[in-house]
Amino acid sequence: MKLAALLFAGVIIVSVGCKDDPVLAYPTYQMCFDDQTMHGSMLPVNDAIVMCCLDHPINGMMPACGATKADCINFLTANLNQTSASTVDVMDGCANYIAAKPATP
Questions:
Q1: Tens digits of per-residue pLDDT, 40-62?
Q2: Helix, strand, coil % (nearest 5) of the chain?
Q3: Can you give the residue range of the structural domain that contains 65?
């Protein structure tokens, strides 16, 4: 639980620190994920999952990964290559995404 809290805090710090930067939109989730893990920020898989779900429009959707953990898992199963993230990474990333996602009224 402490790890999740630290990851959440890290996402918040990164998000707050980057507010002046323009938000990059991506046509696909995979492109966002690859940019965050391999080309740009070199983020760990879990952090990249959360960041792409929350902070970048994916094909015009933001947040992109749905309203529930199950929605997120289904979205990533359909939109992220199996070799990009393990099942555990997807489940943990989706749990952290839901925890970090602003509540909707």
A1: 789 999 999 999 999 999 999 99
A2: 60, 5, 35
A3: 25-100
